[in-house]
Automatic annotation (TrEMBL):
Domain TnsA endonuclease C-terminal: 169-244
Protein name according to UniProt: Heteromeric transposase endonuclease subunit TnsA
Keywords: Endonuclease, Hydrolase, Nuclease
Pfam families per the UniProt record, alphabetical: Tn7_Tnp_TnsA_C (PF08721), Tn7_TnsA-like_N (PF08722)
Entries under SUPFAM superfamilies matching the protein: Restriction endonuclease-like (SSF52980), Winged helix' DNA-binding domain (SSF46785)
Presence of keyword Hydrolase: yes
Gene3D superfamilies per UniProt: 3.40.1350.10, Winged helix-like DNA-binding domain superfamily/Winged helix DNA-binding domain
Lineage: Bacteria, Pseudomonadati, Pseudomonadota, Gammaproteobacteria, Alteromonadales
Length: 264
């Protein structure tokens, strides 16, 4: 864990490194996991959407990232996005807020996520992630208000998400699917696999998916876990979907819906 120093010399160095700049695979976050003190677990996780490793500074940030990653309307994710220091200083003065500083140096504010979405009328969404307990603190609310004013001036929608904003069951389901997500074109082999499982599930509609997968492994003399891995791939590539509001292992065969262009 690096020392939590932020000052003009550090900022000049980070700017030269290209931090806070670029998009997609070329973007570099302003803050990385080794630049901030740990208040829990931090994560570096690959983004299939942005095609690079994303830096999440807490479990809660990881949960928000996974929901953004799964959303089909999100086309890019930029985390730890820096806000212009000149702008936030001006806004702080205008709204009467005390600007954050570290050891007397005015601090560059960051927004946890800036998502690019497929809405031409509102192509960006700024998100700050906070535990609900933090929002009870007047100083935290003052800083969030400063951040919100920045995005309002930029005409970008701004949200504050807490653990209460998330469907944690859905997050756990996405976490299970995430390693199998891909930007690659669906192959003929995957289409054939989907058609096999569509027919199999239709014939076993009331079966629990986990127990059915184990049964199919035995019928096909496969190594244990093979069928479950196949289903996971189909869900991750969106050739099929299950009810994400309940844990995957509680879903039944009849809860699964396949893409309509598959053979019956």
């Amino acid at each position: 864990m690096g020392r939590y120093d932020q000052n003009s010399k550090v900022y000049d160095k980070w700017l030269k490194e290209g931090r806070g700049q670029g998009r997609g695979r070329d973007y570099k976050p302003w803050l990385m996991v080794y630049n901030v003190p740990s208040h829990g677990r931090s994560h570096r996780v690959y983004s299939h959407t942005s095609e690079r490793v994303v830096h999440c500074l807490s479990d809660l940030e990881l949960s928000v990232f996974l929901q953004l990653e799964w959303s089909e309307s999100v086309i890019d994710i930029r985390e730890q996005f820096p806000l212009s220091l000149d702008s936030t200083l001006e806004i702080a003065d205008r709204i009467g807020a005390k600007h954050p500083a570290i050891r007397g140096e005015k601090m560059m504010l960051t927004t946890d996520f800036l998502a690019t979405v497929s809405d031409p009328n509102s192509p960006f969404l700024a998100i700050q992630v906070k535990p609900s307990s933090e929002l009870l603190k007047p100083r935290v609310r003052e800083i969030v208000a400063l951040e919100q004013a920045f995005w309002q001036a930029s005409d970008v929608p701004f949200q504050v998400l807490t653990e209460n904003s998330l469907n944690l069951i859905k997050v756990e389901n996405i976490k299970w699917l995430h390693p199998g997500m891909t930007n690659d074109v669906v192959t003929d082999a995957q289409q054939e696999l989907a058609e096999f499982w569509k027919a199999t599930l239709n014939q076993n509609c009331d079966s629990n998916l986990i127990r059915l997968a184990s049964k199919i492994d035995k019928q096909r003399a496969n190594q244990g876990g093979t069928s479950l891995s196949e289903l996971r791939l189909l869900f991750a590539t969106r050739l099929a979907k299950f009810d994400m509001s309940i844990p995957f292992f509680e879903n039944r065969a009849c809860d699964v819906v396949f893409k309509c262009n598959l053979a019956p």
